[in-house]
Amino acid sequence: RARPYRCGLLLLASFLGPACLLHQQADRHAADDAAHGQSQEWSMRRRLHKVKSRRRLRPGSHLIHLRPRELSSPADGPPLLRFAVYSDTHYWVRSSTRSAWMRRVAAAPVRDGLVVDAAEEVLPLLLRQLSAFAASGADFAVHAGDAVCGGSSFQQEGGEFETTLRLYRSLEASVLGTSWPVYHLPGNHDIHPSGGGTRAWRKAMCANASRECDAAQPWGHACDATVHARTIYRAVCARAWRVLLLDATDGIDSDSDGRGHIGATQLGWLRAQLDASAAARQSVILVMHQLLVQPPGDGWVDPTQDFIDNREEVLALLARYDHVRLSLHGHVHANSIATRGGVVFVTTASAAEYPMHWREVSVYECEVRLTTHAVDAPLQRVRSRDADPRLGRNDIKLGPSLANYVVINTCANSRHRH
After folding, report:
1. What percent helix, strand, coil does the chain show, rounded to 5?
2. Mean pLDDT of the chain, nearest integer
3. Do 147 and 202 touch, CB atoms closer than 8 A?
4. 310, CA 20 to 30 Å: which among 25, 118, 155, 268?
């Protein structure tokens, strides 16, 4: 049985394993609050009783200092970079196939809270919030995968999958326009249900790849001169930071179990990017669909379906560098936070399933601030919450307060460090 999170998290990342830096005891009213659209306020109402911090335990690893927003002073000046991450929108246009799938799910003894027939209402609401985010001066957005309902589990027909991809991209462009950069990364449900990997997804989502790599973009520039439309992975630079967007469906022709993969060529590219960013004294943020590390909690993550299958190879590469600060993921439809080897690993809940979140990432010289926002669809959020009968699972999806609002200190000598 999955157990809901009860304690707050503040973890010290080193190769000796995570150590607890923060202990938070709080009343748990988050589920009701989020169901009524109050996702930004519920953590502020909790009581924070004790804060402890410790120095690093092992030379060669750096201290990760995580602070709840309640304990954080305002940032100094505007961020160097501000972007959105959203994932698992699972758009599916109305059809007899979708209706049949919904009937099968409703009749199953155990189900999740994904209500794909709500996507026609939820996705436009999400996109309008992202449009307002763009208008506020944000730099770009990243869709971290599973835009639609391909792969194996939805049993969607190939032609319907391709039509849905085109309609998704058309809707996104109609709301967000074409001048604000939106990067798309594939998930396992973006793989063609009849095989062929992500070719159809690439055709729909990456048609403007050359524009997205234009060095004249006001928010930064593409760091990799070798990137081209055939590759999904790419690098984006902004001053002292480099964002590496990885393709976790690399080399997977058909989806059978949800797992991801990072191929040898992409690993070589990643190594080159880490070397180049280290030489440029840039900190690194990674974004990909499937997971690299186990989130906290028992029984809710499937080791055969939810991870990149060669994750230890990827993690071994990351362990050679001390300037990778953050890795952002989707896939598991839950907000979570963990650390390993000096890196903070964060998953973001599905935009189409309770609690229907997307994440704002604000990057400063010595800190990264993460904030979740709920899609303004309270009735569908409640519907999704009530559709999942599994004990404690909605608490897991919502995640602890630290997985929703956190400040990550990235400078060892920063004045913000306690």
Report:
1. 30, 20, 50
2. 81
3. no
4. 155
